[in-house]
Amino acid sequence: MIFLQQVINGLMLGGLYALVAVSFTFVIGMLNFLNFSIPGIFMLGGILSWAFMVPGGLPWYAAVPLALLAGIAASLLVERFTYRYMRARFGDATEHAIPLVSSMGFLILFQGLVQIQWGAELHSFPSPWQDTSLRIGGLLISIPQVISLALAMALVFGLTVILGRTSLGRSLRAVAESPDTAQLLGIDLPRLIPAVFIVTGLFSALAGVLFALNYLQVSHVMGDEIASFAMAAMVVGGLGNVWGAIAGGLLLGLMEVMTIFFFGAKVIKVAVWGALFLLILVRPQGLFGKPAVGKGKF
Amino acid sequence: MSGYVAGILAVLAINLLLAYAVFLPAAAGMINLGAAGFMAIGAYVSAYLDVEYGLALPLCLLAGAVVSMVMGCLVAIPLLRTKGVYMVLATLAFGEIVSGALINMEAVGGAAGYPVTTFIDMPVIVAMAVCGLLLVVYLLSTRFGLAMRSIHDDEQATALFGINVRRVKVMAFTIGAGFAGVAGALYGHHYNYIEVANFNLMLSTYTLLYVLIGGTQTAFGPLVGAAIFSLMPEMLRGSEHWRFVIFAVLIIATMALRPEGVVTRHGLARLFGRRKVEG
């Protein structure tokens, strides 16, 4: 029973990782760009929904959409000063490490601004429900985590439908294949690329809100740890593979909970990062073979 | 010299040595996001030999540098299988593995930290940093330095000219790891206390960022970068939170306006106007 509970906990935690991992992997698959500002947008999603609710006094159904919009706006800001700027100036934005470095700058910027505004301490997040857990036959299931997992699956399902069926999706896949060729064939890149960043911003900010609902705490560094696990999940799933990212997120969540259960919390870092390090060296395409989007780029 | 200035100089010198751990791989076209890991190795090896065996300080520092270089070499060889994003993630993972391993080592205090006996004062640290700077200036003037620069600009063309790209890259990474090891050892002996939390991912990230702000074309780029990073908190007394925001704006602006960094080869040549501008 206690083991089953651990499995459930692991999968639920994995749902949170999956949502962030999808954000990372989507930008990499489409644009070959490791976007380090994602933990910052995750943090903005969580802390802004807190800020609108507690100091702002708005109800949750107004605060959360506002926070998500702010996350999307932040993501578009990142796009404006990293990817678009570099592409206009150097032709291929991913030729150098420049966008990656600028996105790290944005992460520090977001964290710094939030720290100035709301301080470095933990803020307790108000729960909209009395009890956020569901009991089924002695097993405890946290509702925000179930929602997060279900949302991650639904959003990724929607994403694959959009990518596979619509004209927008076709353009995006063409860009993932080769931005230059796509532009030659008449795809308006400056109008299309923001779509990628809107999706990323929405996913990351949403993950931040769900994280806040789940742990009932927000702070300016809440994105750091989860982002490193999400990056690990992305590698496990294969870079650019959105379903792989979900599987990787669940696997990582399970691995974290199991490692803590069997060996204690102190070895978790070595276990996760050691496994990741070996995986990058031995099987860089991830556990599930070739990525579904942006294939041939790596 | 007041203790205040001495403190800042020590920080600057340690940051400069750490910067070369990122600079040397970057000059050969690699990104090292695990500098803090190598720094931690150097710090803990040197501190352990000092505390447990009472070894002479120069030997401790040397051992710290050597162990860090051996680790650097061991990591660099498989690392060259990877490129771009994968290399960033692999070096990041390495840094996290080191801190994760150290926190489990009870022999060096685990999470509680580790007190270091012998004290090294500021002048020694600054002297070491100056030696480091001169060493890098010399390295860049050699054939090896030229090979690094050539790999940075075009790896395939360099290989076509008969240069062993793998060897140059492994060496650049290894020597860089040695610099981080010395920086860590000096850090431990100067503050007389080390803990795993000092050598975290944020340190690696900031180091990478200030090296790139400074520029990776000349040995003086990291000096400028380290100076900006070390002196900024002092100039912004009273509003220290703004330090991060200003630093972030600085990195974004540098990348957008001067992607090769503040100090470039071209800029130096123009400033001192002795040689004709090359390349």
What does this structure look like?
The complex is a heterodimer of chains A (298) and B (279). Chain A has 298 residues and is mostly helical. Helix content of chain A is 73%, strand content 4%. Chain A has 11 helices and 4 strands. In chain A, a hairpin with a 2-residue loop joins strand 2 and strand 3. In chain A, helix 2 packs antiparallel against helix 3 and helix 3 packs antiparallel against helix 4. The C terminus of chain A is likely disordered. Chain B is mostly helical and 279 residues long. In chain B, helix 1 packs antiparallel against helix 8, helix 9 packs across helix 10 and helix 9 packs across helix 11. Chain B is globular. The model of chain B has no long low-confidence stretch (mean pLDDT 88).
Q: What labels would you give this structure?
A:
heterodimer; A: 298 residues; mainly alpha; two-stranded antiparallel ribbon; 4 strands; disordered C terminus; B: 279 residues; two-stranded antiparallel sheet; 12 helices; 2 strands; 74% helix; globular
